[in-house]
């Protein structure tokens, strides 16, 4: 019998490409930064301003982008957002001033800020509960993979043509993805010509769910009550993640003495460990759910274990005298940290259901706020203390706090369960 690829897995593949491309467009400026600074004669302060312009609209767009996806459907919203970030990436290749670069990075933050919550909302109707952890894990693995391969890709294009051509090529690639998404994706399985009745049953989708969800008012108070603790844990997770994404090369060079020849390799190793951790965390969480039937245990076990594991490996890394040993411990710490990522992104779907876009935006606001504070605070503490020890100890402390907070998250306390309870009470009260 000929094997037929499930339509939801095709959708998942398209979304993996989006995460991959989005992360390349997010971090490419860091790789091209030295060339931009040299050509335009920029100071470090001006270059820092260009780098930071992305973070602020990114944080603001989390909830707004997710809410728009809940109301208007993820297809329309993600199409617009991907056009915004694709055009802004391409246009960066033509920028001629600091202000132009700041504006374009700000615009990129608008486009990418709502993208991941919109993608989370897209999975609500497409992925069954037992596959959500895997879906979130593998998509974020592609994001980390995108971050890991960006340096060689951008450098190769720079050597071939120049830094401007790197942005033009990558922006064009983003716009090609937009066309693919428009052709393949539909908001719900029932709208897709390729979906069979058997797959609809596997997904657990009931016809009309998509339309009903759009007509329902957003229960802001319930979402805040259910999601604030998840947002806080995401902040604790995000603090350490931003440290890895921004300060790892500087730490390995300044504190561990790696030369430029080895820096790219030893910077990539922890990020590649994260690629494995992202997918494995989702797979393990789904497996636990299938075995136990207990969603809280399936999500909470992986979330707690990952944060504690990241803490356990980061502490000896601070004090080891071996540079290679430090890289190995950093890789193990980042692997454990990324075990939690799929779980964090599955929780908005588990808890909020048809409001997963808004809930995902609420959660990732924690990551966005961490992105505003963590890199700056980390750098300030290095400057004040002359050492990386205190900054890393603070990161470790937040991992411990996040692990304890994770024990109190219950994905079974859903918004839809509250609505169902209210509906059952109405006849008794009337």
TrEMBL record:
Keywords of the record: Cell membrane, Membrane, Transmembrane, Transmembrane helix
The protein's location, in the record's own words, is: Cell membrane
**MF GO annotations:** transmembrane transporter activity
Which CDD domains does the entry link to?
A: MFS_ExuT_GudP_like
The UniProt record lists the Major facilitator superfamily (MFS) profile domain at: 11-414
Against Pfam families, the record matches this protein to:
MFS_1 (PF07690)
Q: Which residues cross the membrane?
A: 12-35, 47-65, 77-96, 141-160, 166-184, 227-248, 260-280, 301-319, 325-347, 359-382, 388-409
Give the superkingdom in one word: Bacteria
PROSITE patterns, alphabetically?
MFS
Membrane topology note: Multi-pass membrane protein
- An annotated GO cellular component: plasma membrane
InterPro entries linked: MFS, MFS_dom, MFS_Na/Anion_cotransporter, MFS_trans_sf, Sugar_P_transporter
Which PANTHER family did the record assign? FI19708P1-RELATED, SOLUTE CARRIER FAMILY 17
Q: What is this protein called?
A: MFS transporter
Q: Which organism is it from?
A: Pandoraea thiooxydans
| Top-level taxonomy | Bacteria, Pseudomonadati, Pseudomonadota, Betaproteobacteria, Burkholderiales
């Amino acid at each position: 019998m000929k094997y037929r690829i499930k339509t939801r897995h095709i959708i998942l593949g398209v979304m993996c490409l989006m995460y991959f491309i989005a992360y390349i467009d997010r971090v490419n400026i860091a790789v091209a930064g030295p060339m931009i600074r040299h050509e335009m004669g920029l100071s470090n302060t001006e270059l820092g301003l260009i780098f930071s312009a992305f973070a602020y609209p990114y944080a603001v767009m989390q909830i707004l982008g997710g809410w728009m996806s809940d109301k208007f459907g993820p297809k329309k919203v993600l199409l617009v957002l991907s056009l915004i970030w694709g055009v802004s990436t391409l246009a960066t290749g033509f920028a001629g001033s600091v202000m132009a670069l700041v504006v374009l990075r700000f615009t990129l933050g608008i486009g990418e800020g709502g993208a991941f919550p919109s993608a989370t909302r897209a999975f609500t109707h497409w992925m069954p509960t037992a596959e959500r952890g895997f879906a979130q894990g593998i998509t974020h693995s592609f994001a980390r993979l995108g971050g890991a391969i960006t340096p060689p890709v951008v450098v190769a294009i720079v050597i071939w043509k120049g830094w401007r051509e790197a942005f033009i090529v990558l922006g064009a690639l983003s716009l090609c993805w937009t066309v693919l998404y428009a052709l393949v994706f539909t908001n719900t399985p029932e709208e897709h010509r390729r979906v069979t009745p058997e797959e609809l049953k596997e997904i657990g989708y009931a016809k009309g769910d998509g339309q009903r969800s759009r007509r329902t008012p957003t229960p802001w108070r319930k979402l805040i009550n259910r999601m604030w603790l998840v947002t806080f844990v995401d902040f604790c997770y995000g603090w350490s993640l931003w440290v890895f994404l921004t300060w790892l090369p500087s730490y390995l060079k300044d504190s561990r003495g790696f030369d430029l020849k080895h820096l790219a390799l030893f910077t990539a190793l922890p990020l590649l460990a994260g690629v494995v951790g992202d997918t494995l965390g989702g797979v393990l969480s789904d497996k636990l759910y299938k075995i136990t039937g207990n969603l809280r245990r399936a999500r909470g076990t992986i979330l707690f274990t990952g944060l504690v594991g990241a803490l356990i490996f980061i502490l000896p890394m601070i004090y080891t005298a071996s540079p290679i040993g430090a890289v190995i411990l950093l890789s193990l710490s980042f692997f454990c940290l990324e075990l939690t990522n799929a779980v964090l992104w599955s929780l908005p779907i588990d808890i909020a259901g048809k409001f997963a876009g808004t809930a995902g935006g609420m959660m990732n606001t924690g990551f966005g706020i961490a992105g505003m504070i963590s890199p700056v605070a980390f750098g300030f503490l290095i400057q004040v203390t002359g050492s990386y020890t205190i900054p890393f100890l603070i990161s470790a402390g937040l991992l411990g706090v996040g692990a304890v907070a994770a024990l109190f998250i219950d994905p079974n306390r859903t918004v839809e369960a509250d609505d169902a309870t209210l509906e059952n009470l109405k006849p008794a009260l009337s």
